Amino acid sequence: MDLEARYRKRASQHWRDRLLRWLEPPAPFIVNPAEPKDFPLGRWNLYIGGAGRVVQGYVNIDLFAVPGVDAAADAHQLPFPSGVFQRVECDAVLEHVRDPAQVMREIERVLAPGGYAHLVTPFCHPFHEYPKDFRRFSLDGLKELAGPLEVVAEGWRTGPTATLLAIVLEYIKLLLPYRAWRVVAHGVGGWLLFPLRYADLLLLRSADARRIGNHCYLWLRKPAGIA
Question: Which among 52, 76, 81, 88 is least surrounded, fewest beta carbons within 10 Å?
């Protein structure tokens, strides 16, 4: 299934697609409750790669103009004037772009002085093509992309247990020869294993969580002196 068809299926109201979404197991991760969430929104805010999500308060862009997307655009060349957004969300996107440094330059450009950028990227996470999957980031690697933007908060969005559960589910599916079997294994395994995700409420408190953390995050601020 190509990427545009996948996005449209997520929003489909056909009874079969709605049933499959209802049967989908909970995510094998919990979001770190210690991650800051109170950086201010402005009149204009940008969400990069939000297809299939409801992103209230943001201009939502993605590669395809599927329902919920305000504009089809490439993050390497954002179709907006400089300095217009108070906040930019870039959640699990940088691993999919060919030139993350160029995407970061575009994020810096469209941010208003004093505005905030929120980056989330995978570290220990299975391969996933949307439409391509090029790389993984440690926190140190992600900070190398920040350029003149100031790091105001950093940490782990999802922890070691999320890594373990994601890999176990992919491993089980790898052993099965037919797609239908893999779909069933994903559903049954996901429902059986998801309660284990709450172990990350404890593990994310440890500095060693970074050794096999699942996703990391940065909050960046554009200094007032940068146009």
Answer: 81
